[in-house]
Amino acid sequence: MGERFPIFWEEARGANVRDVDGNEYLDLTGAFGVALAGHAHPCITRRVSEQTASLVHGMGDVHPSAVKLEVLERLASLAPWPDTRTVLATSGSEAIEIALKTAQLATGRAGVLAFAGGYHGLTLGSLAATHREHFRSSFERRLYRGVVHTRFPRISDKPRAVAAALDEVDRALHRGHGGDPIGAVVIEPVQGRAGTRIPAPGFVAAVAARARAAGALLVCDEVLTAFGRTGKMFAHEHSGVVPDLLCVGKALGGGMPLSACLAPASVMDAWPISEGEAIHTSTFLGHPVACASALAFLDVLADEALIERAARLGELLRSELATGLAEVEDVMEVRGQGLLIGIELAAAGSGAAVSESALDAGLITLAAGSRGEVLQLLPPAVLSEAQAEHAVRALVTRVRLWSGER
């Protein structure tokens, strides 16, 4: 990275960020997808302020706060099952850990099937499911060896490639890996950190059917995509599947650290009843301020129709970027679902290079992809159309400049 990177944030509101030097930026990352409702939304900050005045910290699952119960009830009302159980956490990685533990308890199988390009976190259990060598190599000897990674065919792949990927899934489900039969199949309905990789039509549904036929549970990692990011409440809805376990986070907390693993009672009841010491818990479980923030976020999500707005704005951004970059030779593809958009560039590191260059134009973006070749956008759903149009013009200019300078 060059001299302009990083910037140091001082204040953020809506889709705007100001750094410590007084420079203002348009945030097209939503702070890693967290600020779906925008930074410092007044309804959320007001609820946080009210909560801090009454109860900042509780006692998790021993003496829980009332606001924790409210969050559990609200999440149950949004879940795809009629009878839902939820375990709260603070990070997406922990939500994945909970899902893996639950799947093992429910199936009696420790093996995991995950997918090439998948990113599920960096704690040891979630890291074992994460695919990228960059994250894994330094800790390989500590990672569980019963995880197998198979191909994740993209929407642009030919039917033959999709069939080959499903054959790999079949073999993994029936043979396991490292001696352990597969109990959990972990998949992102849209791969985020891999560069906004959208699965081939029917692939997720086919994986779900195969998992269930083999007695494994389908875990949808929606830490990034849940709560409207892709234009639907949950991204798995695009594939027409209902998972057995659902991991959410990022946007859920409205800016506060909060995640969750949800499942039907028939799955979660595999956890033994506590006899005084829970076998999975944490000090900040169901933190009252984070829960209050989440409730306010979910209110804003509904009251301001942010899911519908994400679908509309996402299509505007994607189509305008595709048109503006259509003749740029180094642009391989502009793709996305809702407000999760990727511009794939030809050269390794090019997404990172354009992302740094975009800071000069007052835009905060992300690099993604295993080679840093994707420029990724995850803007807040409160982005105005004027801001969206400005972002398109500036990004098209930056990509064209970069392409011409190479």
Descriptive overview:
With 406 residues, this protein is of the alpha/beta class. Helix content is 38%, strand content 18%. It has helices at residues 30-33, 42-54, 66-78, 92-107, 124-129, 133-136, 159-175, 203-213, 265-268, 288-303, 306-324, 350-358, 385-405, and strands at 9-13, 16-19, 24-27, 84-89, 111-115, 147-150, 182-187, 217-222, 245-248, 259-264, 331-337, 340-345, 363-364, 366-368, 374-377. Strands 4-10-9-8-7-5-6 form a seven-stranded mixed β-sheet, sandwiched between helices. Strands 1-2-3-13 form a four-stranded mixed β-sheet. The chain has a four-stranded antiparallel β-sheet with strand order 11-12-15-14, covered by helices on one side. It is globular and about 60 Å long.
- Count every beta strand, where a strand is a DSSP E run of 2 or more residues: 15
Strand order of the largest sheet: 4-10-9-8-7-5-6
Low-pLDDT segments: none
Mean pLDDT: 95
Characterize the overall form: globular
Tell me the span between the first and last alpha carbons. Answer: 17 Å
State which percent range the strand residues make up: 15-25%
Measured as a percent range, the helix fraction is: 25-40%
Count of individual helical segments: 13
Q: Give the topology string: H per helix, E per strand.
A: EEEHHHEHEHHEHEHEEEHHHEEHEEEH
> What about the largest sheet?
7 strands, mixed
Main structural class: alpha/beta
For the CA atoms, what is the radius of gyration?
A: 21 Å
